[in-house]
Amino acid sequence: MSRNFFPSATRWSSGSSSCSMSIVVWSVVGCLLMLHLYSLICQSDIQNKEIDTSMSRHPLLLKLEEVEEENIKMPRPRRRSPRAAKRKPRRPTAVIDEFLDESSQIRHIFFPDMKTSIDPTKDAGNDSFFYYPGRIWLDTEGNPIQAHGGGILFDERSRTYYWYGEYKDGPTYHAHRKGAARVDIIGVGCYSSKDLWTWKNEGLVLAAEGKNETHDLHRSNVLERPKVIYNNKTGKYVMWMHIDNVNYTKASVGIAVSDSPTGPFDYLYSQRPHEFDSRDMTIFKDDNGIAYIIYSSVDNSELHIGPLNEEYLNVTRVVTRILVGQHREAPALFKHEGIYYMITSGCTSWAPNKALAHAAKSILGPWETLGNPCIGGNKVVRFTTFFSQSTYVLPFPGLPGFFIFMADRWNPANLRDSRYVWLPLTLGGAADQPLEYTFGFPFWSRVSIYWHKRWRLPDILREKK
Ligand code: GAL
Fold first, then answer.
1. Is the CB of residue 72 below 6 angstroms from any atom belonging to ligand 1?
2. Where is this region: Disordered (predicted)?
């Protein structure tokens, strides 16, 4: 027996409202289905396009997208006396503990020694042009490359690549008991290359200040993540970098200029951009010549992004707050088919953590988080960004959708011995994380960084450069 608690009039109106409710519900379902259908069509369009481009690619490029697994064999636990084991039972060590442990028996896996170094001056025959993420990489004089936290400028005029980064070839120490490991400022190193594999040391293009203790570049301070772009209007090469004091409380950016990519760069000044604290940062030059600064701010809890002035020597009044409350740093920005992408890391000092990819239609936002771009290796490898931290993403003008992801494998015990992790980054397929503004429908391309123990640019790409 059905029980009815409503008077008839109410029943009637409730009947009509449930009827209009169901119309609304069905309309919404219909709309969602249409949207879904549309997104599937777009998706298959994108996939078809990808298949088309991949068909026209050199087969070696497909090789770069192969998923390579990594099997890190854990060392046998060290022997302990039964008494010690009883007093403090040992928790099982994880791969990340081994990575962070300077005396780990498997240290050579993360920091292979000089014997395995990449030496482009030696005729390696069929082994030429291979990148080995994590191995020591020698310049043309046989010294380990010193360009940490760096970025690459392709100089159209000389058709040469210039790699700028922190020259850290000094002793590592702690200024305070609780302070992060550091190396005194030596300067910004610059290396030139035509093939992105053989690097000639062009020397320090911006050197530390030896005497004046109040100077930003005094060796007791911090200079990190230098990046250089070329200003077509002024004909100057402009360098922006993170400038700080030993306690990281100055939290500023420094600006330097030069007439030549190989310097010397004149240091102009430092500032807190838009009057905000600024730590990890990068700059990005858009196709239309407008350049932007992106920096971690408000104690690294969010990123700020804003255009530079025409000369690239200052910020403007325009700035937006992005990824608010997400605590991201080490931003590396790139663009593909009108969409902006960015890789960031979490904030764990020199220790590696999980990278995230982000995308935006407008560089000033809103930015959406797409998920972890790392593919292959194993779970730990993927969740530590291949034991490294993003610094730059280098585009290939000749091959849209293909990039080199550049990262630093920091060695806090000996920062000068930090390694470079370069890996292929491609765009394509659906993003793997439901998104805020698209009702869970994939909208952006997936950003994928593929783990390889060794890889090289396909000949066709090397020829294109
Ligand atoms: C990291 C940052 C590095 C450096 C380091 C110092 O979080 O990405 O560039 O500043 O901290 O601890």
1. no
2. 71-91
Using CA positions, which residue lies closest to atom 4 of ligand 1? 349
pLDDT tens for 181-192 read 999 999 999 999
> pLDDT band at 73, cuts 50/70/90?
confident
Q: What SS3 class is residue 256?
A: strand
Q: If pLDDT is split at 50, 70 and 90, which confidence band does 323 have? A: very high
Tokens, residue 72: 């890190």
Cβ–Cβ < 8 Å for 394, 403: yes
Q: Which residue has the tokens 């030139």?
A: 192
For the Cβ of 180 lying below 6 angstroms from any atom of ligand 1, the answer is: yes
How far apart are alpha carbons 151 and 245 in whole angstroms? 22
Q: What is the pLDDT of residue 126?
A: 82
Q: Which residues make beta-bridge pairs with 302?
A: 297
Q: 458 by DSSP, 3-state: which?
A: coil
CATH superfamily of the 55-69+86-463 domain:
Glycosyl hydrolase domain; family 43 (2.115.10.20)
Q: Which residues pair with 244 in a beta bridge?
A: 222
Per-residue pLDDT band for 44 (boundaries 50, 70, 90) equals: very low
Query: Given this model, what pLDDT does residue 439 score?
Result: 57
Query: In the block, which residue shows the tokens 């068909």?
Result: 55
Atom of ligand 1 nearest to the CA of 181: 12
Q: Is 150 in the pocket of ligand 1 (CB under 6 A)?
A: no
Q: What is the mean pLDDT of residues 362-391?
A: 96
pLDDT tops 80 at residue 354: yes
> Are 196 and 406 in contact, with CB atoms under 8 Å apart?
no
- Cis amide leading into 397 (omega within 30): no
Is the Cβ atom of 247 under 6 angstroms away from ligand 1? no
CA distances from 173 to 246, 261, 413 (A): 12, 32, 8
The dihedral through the CA atoms of 35, 36, 40, 43 has a sign that is positive
Instruction: Report CA dihedral (328, 334, 339, 341) to the nearest 10 degrees.
Output: -20
pLDDT of residue 398: 74
